[in-house]
UniProtKB/TrEMBL annotation:
Coiled coil segments of this chain: none
Pfam families, A to Z: 2OG-FeII_Oxy, DIOX_N
InterPro entries: DIOX_N (IPR026992), IPNS-like_FE2OG_OXY (IPR044861), IPNS-like_sf (IPR027443), Iron_ascorbate_oxido_reductase (IPR050231), Oxoglu/Fe-dep_dioxygenase_dom (IPR005123)
Keyword Cytoplasm belongs to the record: no
Protein family (similarity comment): Belongs to the iron/ascorbate-dependent oxidoreductase family.
PROSITE patterns: FE2OG_OXY
Segments forming domain Fe2OG dioxygenase: 169-284
Name of the protein this chain belongs to: Fe2OG dioxygenase domain-containing protein
Keyword match Oxidoreductase: yes
Top-level division of the source organism's lineage: Eukaryota
One of the record's GO molecular function terms: oxidoreductase activity
Taxonomy of the source species: Eukaryota, Fungi, Dikarya, Ascomycota, Pezizomycotina
């Protein structure tokens, strides 16, 4: 059972300057945001730079899409480029939610290569989706500079420079709909895989990337409290964005920033209640080598073994390897690499590991 928590961090980021790049103006925001991510791994931000009308437009389009017949949506299954649709109970966790993924670098959604992966409904709205993703990316970069500043890194762009918007498969926007169902609707027994007997809307997990921005229209998300034992209901505050740290950044920071488990249960979001949300997953470029940084005064302290959703992370793993590992575990064959690709990746990894150094701050 999850409980309400009055201590859940809510931070005003109006001082966050995304244009000047001068970290001195971000000191208050940097300290408060980083403190929250050390303790909770989650926080709500208010007075953020993403226009409310843009968020509402994305929600309206998302709702319209999810109301289309299932046979129309399922013609566009998710691809290894993180573009496409996943229906309820279709991932390996058998979660009761629908999602539409928009991965890719700027321009990818309108390219001929992605044309058949993007549902026809979205063809006329691609420019709006791309613009929204760009605004989200700018906010993620600003937060990454805050983390570097508060952690005392000599370069405030240490994390941010590894998050180029035009590299790899870019970052992903995921639109989600937890459908309302009549209480007498049956859910097959093999869908009941959460810790409670009734199953889950979204199984407990950590995100695999760097920073996630979650836009929500209703409450329902639960996060593991700092005590590591009890679940707390994440507040839903209109106008705020819920922020959380992913495993790549948690590992890269040497555990100084926390990637926290979170979930949506049928207890917190009953079957007859609907919940709509959007998640933007900010990730470092695929060839980024993750070498945990070491804090001052702890130069000889070895980082404890780090796990991401059951997978052990080792120093030198690349972001691309981590992402494939996690996505393949969730969605299966769509993210499996060919043997030649794996061999090429292994050679690249070995070369990068030989060149990588550990940052000490």
């Amino acid at each position: 059972m999850a409980t309400s928590n009055d201590e859940f961090p809510i931070i005003d980021i109006s001082d966050l300057d995304l244009s000047s790049g001068r970290s001195s103006s971000q000191r208050r925001v940097a300290d408060e945001v980083t403190r929250a991510c050390r303790e909770w791994g989650f926080l709500l931000v208010k007075n953020h730079p993403i226009p409310a009308e843009d968020i509402e437009e994305m929600f309206a389009l998302s709702r319209e899409f999810f109301q289309l017949p299932e046979e129309v949506k399922e013609r566009y299954p998710i691809t290894k480029r993180s573009i496409g649709y996943v229906g309820s109970f279709k991932d390996r966790g058998k979660d009761d939610k629908m999602s539409m993924w928009f991965g890719g670098v700027p321009g990818a959604l309108s390219s001929s290569e992605s044309h058949d992966s993007v549902p026809e409904f979205w063809h006329q709205h691609v420019a709006k989706v791309e613009a929204f993703k760009h605004r989200c990316h700018d906010l993620v970069v600003g937060l990454l500079e805050c983390f570097a500043l508060a952690l005392g890194l000599p370069d405030p762009k240490f994390f941010a420079d590894a998050h180029r918007e035009d590299a790899g498969n870019g970052n992903s926007l995921r639109m989600l709909m937890y459908p309302a169902r009549a209480r007498h609707d049956e859910r097959p027994n093999d869908h009941r895989k959460d810790t409670d007997e009734e199953g889950s809307r979204m199984q407990a997990h950590t995100d695999s990337g760097s920073v996630t921005l979650l836009f929500q229209r209703a409450p329902g998300l639960e996060v593991l409290s700092p005590d590591g034992e009890t679940w707390a209901r994440a507040p839903h505050v209109p106008g705020c964005i819920l922020i959380n740290v992913g495993d790549a950044l948690g590992f890269w920071s040497g555990g100084q920033l926390k990637a926290t488990r979170h979930r949506v249960t049928f207890e917190g979001l009953p079957p007859d209640k609907e919940r709509q949300s959007m998640a933007y997953f900010g990730a470092a470029n695929p060839d980024t080598v993750l070498q945990p940084i070491v804090a001052c005064g702890e130069k000889k302290k070895k980082m404890d073994t780090y796990y991401s959703n059951g997978f052990e992370l080792v120093p030198g793993i690349t972001v691309g390897e981590l992402n494939r590992m996690i996505m393949q575990g969730i969605y299966g064959a769509a993210f499996e690499s060919s043997s030649s690709k794996k061999q090429e990746d292994n050679k690249t990894l070995e070369a990068e590991r030989g060149q990588a150094t550990t940052a000490v701050v």
